[in-house]
């Protein structure tokens, strides 16, 4: 497994179009641009054309990470010889290689789009000269990228695992229980609370497994396992459509590879 190590004391810049870096990432909403024939990323000439034709909503480079990221307008046409694929599909293809860079670039683009003006004076923000941040020249305030910490939990009971179909996301698949960490609570407390709220049971032996950046738009998913302790299942109808215990040799439709949910369910971690 490749671990990406970032030095966050670096600026997001509008660089030289002739020196864009090795990795060129073009997004349109939650899609990424790849070559039709081999799913390779675009090259510099494609980036230059997109920018010159005013199809780009925002773009920046991080030279220290050797990449440039573009966010296209929602109605921007697909360049000839290319296609857009979902980020989830891209994560499945490049789990240990380029996924961390894609997650970072996409999350930063969405954050820049949501954070354009100073919340104190209303002045447009500019990229900080030294850090991954936006800066207000009048208030001298610095605004850093937002990260939403969340927990995702695989509940185990003997040789079975608890999976749910959610009402508001991926309604065609069964996946792990999950939720955001609230102010004032630890990740472990969030695990116990989310499980109690969503399915009405108590768990024990809560243990941290791993984490994954999930830029939809800015989650840090902290994966846990826990053991069933007590209680009867009572679903939170506003969140859950269906929940059941499954053995791993008789699984329903589950999230695709590339997600930490897939790894938990398949017993890969």
What does this entry look like structurally?
With 269 residues, the chain is of the alpha+beta class. The protein folds into three domains: 8-114, no CATH class; 115-146; 148-265, Alpha-Beta Complex (Nucleoside Triphosphate Pyrophosphohydrolase), CATH 3.90.79.10. The chain is 19% helix and 33% strand. The protein contains five helices and 14 strands. The strands form three sheets. Strands 9, 10, 11, 12, 13 and 14 form a six-stranded mixed β-sheet that branches. Strands 3-4-1-2-5 form a five-stranded mixed β-sheet, sandwiched between helices. The longest helix is centred in the middle third of the chain and has 16 residues, at 99-114. The model is unreliable at 1-8 (pLDDT under 50).
Q: Specify the oligomeric state.
A: single chain
**Poorly predicted tracts of residues:** 1-8
Mean pLDDT score: 92
Largest sheet: 6 strands, mixed
CATH topology call of the largest domain: Nucleoside Triphosphate Pyrophosphohydrolase
User: Helix count?
Assistant: 5
Helix coverage percent of residues?
10-25%
The name of the CATH architecture of the largest domain is: Alpha-Beta Complex
CATH H-level superfamily title of the largest domain: Nucleoside Triphosphate Pyrophosphohydrolase
């Amino acid at each position: 497994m490749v671990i990406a190590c970032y030095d966050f004391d670096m600026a997001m810049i509008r660089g030289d179009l002739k020196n864009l870096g090795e990795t060129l990432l073009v997004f349109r909403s939650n899609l990424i641009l790849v070559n039709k024939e081999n799913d390779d990323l675009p090259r510099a000439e494609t980036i230059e054309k997109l920018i010159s034709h005013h199809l780009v909503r925002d773009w920046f480079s991080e030279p220290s990470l050797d990449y440039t990221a573009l966010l296209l307008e929602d109605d921007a046409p697909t360049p000839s010889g290319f296609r857009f694929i979902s980020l989830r599909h891209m994560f499945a293809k490049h789990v240990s290689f380029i996924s961390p860079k894609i997650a970072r670039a996409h999350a930063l683009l969405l954050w820049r789009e949501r954070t354009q003006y100073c919340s104190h004076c209303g002045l447009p923000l500019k990229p900080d000269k030294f850090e991954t941040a936006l800066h207000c020249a009048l208030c001298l305030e610095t605004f850093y990228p937002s990260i939403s910490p969340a927990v995702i939990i695989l509940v185990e009971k003997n040789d079975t695992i608890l999976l749910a179909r959610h009402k508001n996301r991926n309604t065609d698949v069964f996946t792990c229980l999950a939720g955001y960490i609230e102010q004032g609570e630890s990740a472990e407390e969030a695990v116990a609370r989310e499980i109690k709220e969503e399915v009405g049971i108590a768990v024990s032996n809560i243990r941290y497994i791993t984490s994954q950046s999930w830029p939809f738009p800015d989650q840090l998913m902290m994966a846990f396992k826990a053991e069933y302790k007590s209680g009867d299942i009572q679903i939170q109808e506003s969140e859950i459509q269906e929940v059941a215990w499954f053995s791993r040799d008789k699984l329903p439709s589950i999230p695709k590879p590339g997600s930490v949910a897939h790894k938990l369910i398949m017993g890969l971690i």
